[in-house]
């Protein structure tokens, strides 16, 4: 049976899009017959002990702390993380190392892979230099930006196989000189055992939030996710005042948190539509479905940037799996997920008026809602179900590992 050690920035029990994708990958691979574990770096901040179980999965933890000025600190972090990977390799003896971005994970794994002669698969979920620009912690073209990009290219060139989550990231790597045949696209997916059975609307919760007028349910626009600037939640807040001109009973439901939360609350309080906007804050993952059930339309107004044009988000797929209508800005990452007029609708990014007009059109044409819902759900089942998509990893592992090729592509002999 092939053993795969996943090298990770962080993992469960921490909650993030990163950890949920990791959970889905490991669970799906285990169901296919692989033995899987993870090893996390210094940025994992939850849990104790050298090895920890979370949701039935085992993770080796790397302890330590890196200090120094920028650049030197990250290099030291790579060294400490490599030591943690080394310990996990000596204890468990995996057949494949599967490192996931950022490039710090890839570089640490590369050191250990070459030392032990273990094949390395490197998976890119986003270019982290662009993510830093998007969340306000970096500047495009800065020294740190260029160093991060250079390290990523170094790891990609030396890995035995490369995986990306979308065509946008693959195209960028190919433009840098990477052979397209070395890159496999493993699209974002949904674990339909978790998201495939939507909850009914909770009328008491709806009333408590003021989502009824004269005993009638209000139309609800929802956003569930992290509050970063690139998500465009400020655009959505501004759009609500315009939407009220055509849909005066419409409400906006905002679930989540992040660095922009305080500024967004101030913006909402100053809006003419302030009474229609509800901030819920962060909620436990097991309660998210209750809030999905309140929304008619899930809105994703991402701003146009290099990050949003290249990277596909997970949330629109979760919304489709929940049977929700999807309205998203017309950026590259969304165009890979949403077929305009079929599985959802796209509107011009960075434009509150375009956002409001699209939402109003959807609310005024309820006769199409069932078609959108059905098309969205079928799209997720056909293209983004982890139980099916994870099978592509077999081909990647077979390509790099004689062990995987020799025991039925990762299934126990």
From TrEMBL:
<dbReference type="InterPro" id="IPR050194">
    <property type="entry name" value="Glycosyltransferase_grp1"/>
</dbReference>
<dbReference type="InterPro" id="IPR024004">
    <property type="entry name" value="PEP-CTERM/XrtA_GlycosylTrfase"/>
</dbReference>
<feature type="domain" description="Glycosyltransferase subfamily 4-like N-terminal">
    <location>
        <begin position="17"/>
        <end position="189"/>
    </location>
</feature>
<dbReference type="InterPro" id="IPR028098">
    <property type="entry name" value="Glyco_trans_4-like_N"/>
</dbReference>
<protein>
    <recommendedName>
        <fullName>Glycosyltransferase subfamily 4-like N-terminal domain-containing protein</fullName>
    </recommendedName>
</protein>
<dbReference type="Pfam" id="PF13579">
    <property type="entry name" value="Glyco_trans_4_4"/>
</dbReference>
<dbReference type="Pfam" id="PF13692">
    <property type="entry name" value="Glyco_trans_1_4"/>
</dbReference>
<dbReference type="GO" id="GO:0016758">
    <property type="term" value="F:hexosyltransferase activity"/>
</dbReference>
């Amino acid at each position: 049976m092939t053993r795969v050690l996943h090298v990770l920035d962080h993992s469960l029990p921490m909650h993030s899009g990163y950890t949920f994708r990791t959970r889905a990958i490991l669970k799906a691979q285990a169901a296919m017959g692989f033995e899987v574990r993870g090893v996390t770096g210094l940025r994992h901040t939850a849990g104790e002990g050298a090895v920890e179980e979370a949701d039935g999965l085992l993770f080796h933890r790397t302890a330590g702390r890196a200090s120094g000025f920028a650049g030197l600190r990250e290099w030291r972090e790579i060294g400490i993380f490599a030591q943690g990977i080394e310990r996990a390799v000596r204890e468990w003896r995996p057949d494949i190392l599967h490192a996931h971005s950022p490039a710090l994970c890839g570089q640490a794994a590369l050191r250990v892979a070459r030392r032990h002669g273990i094949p390395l698969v490197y998976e890119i979920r986003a270019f982290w230099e662009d993510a830093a620009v998007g969340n306000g912690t970096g500047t495009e073209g800065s020294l740190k930006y260029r160093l991060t990009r250079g390290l990523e290219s170094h790891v990609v060139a030396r890995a035995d196989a490369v995986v990306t989550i979308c065509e946008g990231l693959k195209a960028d790597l190919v433009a840098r000189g990477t052979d397209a045949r070395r890159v496999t696209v493993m699209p974002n997916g949904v674990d339909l055992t978790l998201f495939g059975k939507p909850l009914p609307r909770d009328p008491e919760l709806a009333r408590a939030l003021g989502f009824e007028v004269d005993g009638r349910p209000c139309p609800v626009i929802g956003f569930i996710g992290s509050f970063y600037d690139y998500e465009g939640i400020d655009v959505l807040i501004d759009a609500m005042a315009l939407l009220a001109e055509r849909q005066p009973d419409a409400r906006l439901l905002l679930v989540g948190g992040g660095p922009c939360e305080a500024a967004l609350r101030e913006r909402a309080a100053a809006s003419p539509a302030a009474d229609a906007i509800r901030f819920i804050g962060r909620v436990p993952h097991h309660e998210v479905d209750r809030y999905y059930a309140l929304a008619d339309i899930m809105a994703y107004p991402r701003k146009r940037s290099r990050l949003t044009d290249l990277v596909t988000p997970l949330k629109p797929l979760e919304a489709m799996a929940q049977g929700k209508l999807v309205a998203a800005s017309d950026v590259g990452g969304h165009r890979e997920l949403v077929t305009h007029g079929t599985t959802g609708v796209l509107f011009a990014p960075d434009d509150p008026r375009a956002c409001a007009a699209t939402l109003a059109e959807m609310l005024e044409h309820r006769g199409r809602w069932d078609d959108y819902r059905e098309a969205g759900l079928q799209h997720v089942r056909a293209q983004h179900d982890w139980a099916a998509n994870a099978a592509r990893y077999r081909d990647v592992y077979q390509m790099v590992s004689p062990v995987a090729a020799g025991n039925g592509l990762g299934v126990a002999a």
